[in-house]
Amino acid sequence: MTLAQPHTQLPPSARLKLDLMFHGIHYSEALGRAASHAFPNYYPYRFQPGEHDPTGKGKAAIPYALNLADGTVIRIKGSGDSPWGVSGDLETGYTLARDGEPGMPVSFVPLPRWMAAQTSDGFSMARTGLELLGDLGVINLAPGCEYFLHKQDGVSMRCGFCAYGAPDERVAHLGQKIHQVSLPELTYTRIGETLEAALAEGGVRHLYLVGGSLTDWREEGQRYLEIARRIQAVNRHRLPLSCGSGALPLDIMREMRGEGLVDNVCFNLEIWSEPLFAKICPGKNRYVGYARWIEALEQAVGLWGRGHVYTAMVAGIELEPEHGMTWEQAADLALEGAEALCARGVLPVYSLYWPVGGRDHPEYMSRLRNYFERLNLGYHGLRQKYDLHISDSFMTHRCAFMQMECDMDRLAAA
Prior knowledge:
Elements: H1 12-23, H2 29-34, E1 45-46, E2 59-60, E3 65-68, E4 73-75, E5 84-89, E6 93-98, E7 104-108, E8 130-133, E9 136-139, E10 151-152, E11 155-156, H3 169-174, H4 185-201, E12 206-209, H5 217-234, E13 241-243, H6 250-258, E14 264-266, H7 274-280, H8 282-287, H9 290-304, E15 309-315, H10 327-343, E16 347-352, H11 362-385, H12 405-413
Parallel strand pairs: 9-12, 12-13, 13-14, 14-15, 15-16
Antiparallel strand pairs: 1-2, 3-4, 3-7, 5-6, 6-7, 8-9, 10-11
Helix pairs in contact: 4-5, 5-6, 6-9, 10-11
């Protein structure tokens, strides 16, 4: 796959990260060996037709993410077409290089010891609801999203880009009951033991609560209050804790803030503009509403202050054919939203969207990259204009594997 060359002013290290996000890494024996000691990728490497396959199986386990020498974490996308490859081993060190160019030292996000351990009742700690993204511990005790269970006029209420919120076996072993707010005591006992083990091992610098949505936003708020209280009871290192719920009612936010349960909140609007929000996030639009979502973000700024209120955005979903937008139009719309949110003291965080279809189509990927570059450059300027900075208590370059904001700000400061 050949992508158009970027015509941007991205700093070299940020451009490297962007290259790896789009081009990926081709398979090598070194990459395969690293899978034995690295945090595993959820998706195996799949060999392309005609690509040399030393496994003879058509697919291979690979690591989830790699670290550059400065700690920057980048998710690994396997691609037989990529000019990037890894050599070396754990003992001598790994090197990342582009075909025919000098390499650079890298490491892989390690597989922590606690993931092979068990709780006091013999349950695997790897299944208790804690996941590591670099130095960020993500706690998801209720992954099942109720939007997947509802339709309106034959249309599912789930967000159009989301596949991981469907109620499945994760709901059963975590004890989550659909349409029920509280979680079982055993779930909290297990996550408490797991969190203690993870914090004792080290490397976790901040925590993030996330979960599936409830159709009643007040009930969702009550669930997050319960979870935050239980997590803080075992957060003896007092690591910063962020709430990644949907938009919440003002009285719930006041209770959460008054008890000092979380340091940041992130109500994920996902997309700017009410028509796109209604189309891409029909459940959020139906059960909360676009205007009320933005109002909740504004109210949160009044409680937590500027720099502590965030909203995740799906960067690039506007380029799906049904929305009929050029990449320039999509970037302009996203930047319009970024400025509107920054003016309110809210910091959007843009995660790169990988399309379901067209992922390997050169023209589509070229437009997506142009869009993402313009968005990140423009948004960096907006953060400077409004004197807004992403707090290290929320996100850093050591966990932002599909985002560029921390890389841009850190490099500019240097």
